[in-house]
Amino acid sequence: MFVPGNHSTAVEQGLIHAEEYPGIRFLVHESMQWNGLKLFGSPYTPRFHDWAYMKK
Predict the structure, then answer these.
(1) Are strands 37-41 and 30-34 parallel, antiparallel or unpaired?
(2) How many CA atoms, within 13 angstroms, populate the side-chain half-sphere of residue 19?
(3) What is the pLDDT of residue 56?
(4) Given this model, what pLDDT does residue 55 score?
(5) Are the C-beta atoms of 21 and 11 separated by less than 8 Å?
(6) 3-state secondary structure of 9
(7) Listed residue (53, 32, 35) closest to 44, CA to CA
(8) What's the pLDDT score for residue 53?
């Protein structure tokens, strides 16, 4: 599982795609089931300078 964060500008800009990493599940404000657990991942953060995934 990979959740991009505020330093993941390449992911936000579409330069890195989940399809390039078939063994890794990218979570961008979504959930998944794993070993009976429901996991939620979201990269969005409060606005801070011009970093990636700033809440608008």
Answers:
(1) antiparallel
(2) 2
(3) 58
(4) 66
(5) no
(6) helix
(7) 53
(8) 86
